[in-house]
Design goal:
With about 300 residues, this protein is of the alpha/beta class. The protein has 2 domains: about 140 residues, Rossmann fold; about 150 residues, Rossmann fold (3-Layer(aba) Sandwich), CATH 3.40.50. The chain is about 40% helix and about 15% strand. It is built from 12 helices and 9 strands. The strands form 2 sheets. The protein has a 5-stranded parallel sheet, with helices on one face. It has a 4-stranded parallel sheet with strand order 2-1-3-4. β1, α2 and β2 form a beta-alpha-beta unit. α1 crosses α12 and α5 packs across α12.
Length: about 300
């Protein structure tokens, strides 16, 4: 098993499958009266978040606590970071405190890679800039496999703001490793030139959502990240929704077995309508629940031991 999870590219097919299989075992705990395991008792997990987060931070905290680890939640706001302390000095502080694992979310791409050089414990990337978010890809893959029974050969459309999406990058890397076929869909301004070839030679690009829907097993809608945009990438929210939003009419173009995913948080009414988000085809709530199981599996295998 790897020591760090900094990128979905760190995972080969065997390791990724081991994590997904372990997540399935962790998910079985959710039905028990006592949901905790003693596996990581005495271990310390630090959640080091330089960006706001709800799902990811709470999910990692729940995952560590269900494995009986001691959890320290570190927020940049209200800490020495707000006084100008560098990431390296913060890392050395955590190292001195004996952190066994550091889960980091940071606005700078590459921060988890730098952190791994400064601490002895394991580093888990919980999102770095517009680079990657590997545990989100793992929970998405787990959700697809749970719903559809397989990953090999699945046709997955990832739709929307690919340019700023760390979720898209990690999903392309992980899902193609596991045999899925990916099509990136969005306006030309939000799909970087040559991104498909850079991430995976098998990945396709389309600018026409309606044309790809009938062939897809999975449609993953991405949030339009207006907070990361300094320029106008499309004429208006209304125009974006008209061309690339998933509504009931578009959902009916999907095969009957196809599912709809979204990493959250959603812009309801923009990239996805409430009727689609709340439909039986939607896995959005499942993804949140599966996130705890997937992150339990990651922490267990990084810190606890063997399958």
């Amino acid at each position: 098993m790897i020591k760090h999870l900094r990128s979905a590219a760190d995972l080969d097919a065997a390791t990724a499958t081991l994590i997904l299989d372990t997540a399935g075992e962790m998910a079985a705990l959710a039905g028990r009266e006592v949901k905790k395991l003693p596996t990581l008792r005495g271990r310390t997990v630090v959640n080091l978040f330089y960006e706001d987060s709800t799902r990811t931070r709470i999910s990692f905290e729940a995952a560590a606590k269900r494995l009986s680890a001691d959890v320290i939640n570190f927020s940049a706001k209200g800490s020495s970071v707000s006084k100008g302390e560098s990431l390296k000095d913060t890392a050395l502080t955590l190292q001195a405190m004996g952190a066994d694992a550091v889960v980091i979310r940071h606005p700078a791409s590459g921060a988890p890679h730098r952190l791994a050089a400064w601490v002895d414990g394991s580093v888990v990337n919980a999102g770095d800039g517009t680079h990657e978010h590997p545990t989100q890809a793992l929970l998405d893959a787990y959700t697809m496999r749970s719903r559809l029974g397989r990953l090999d050969g699945l046709r997955v459309a990832i739709v929307g703001d690919v340019l700023h999406s760390r979720v898209a990058r990690s999903n392309v890397l992980l899902l193609t490793t596991l045999g899925a076929e990916i099509t990136l869909v969005g306006p030309p301004t939000l799909i970087p030139v040559d991104i498909a070839a850079a991430l995976s030679p098998k990945t396709k690009v389309s600018y026409d959502l309606d044309s790809v829907l009938p062939d897809m097993d999975v449609v993953m809608m991405l949030r339009v990240q207006t907070e990361r945009m300094q320029d106008s990438y499309f004429p208006s929210a209304r125009e974006y929704s008209r061309r690339y939003g998933l509504d009931l009419a578009r959902m009916r173009k999907l095969p009957e077995h196809a599912i709809v995913m979204h990493p959250g948080p959603m812009n309801r009414g923009m990239e996805i309508t409430p009727e689609v988000a709340d439909s039986s085809r939607s896995t959005i709530v499942e993804q949140v629940a599966n996130g705890v199981s997937a992150r339990m599996a990651v922490l267990y295998l990084l810190l606890g031991g063997k399958a």
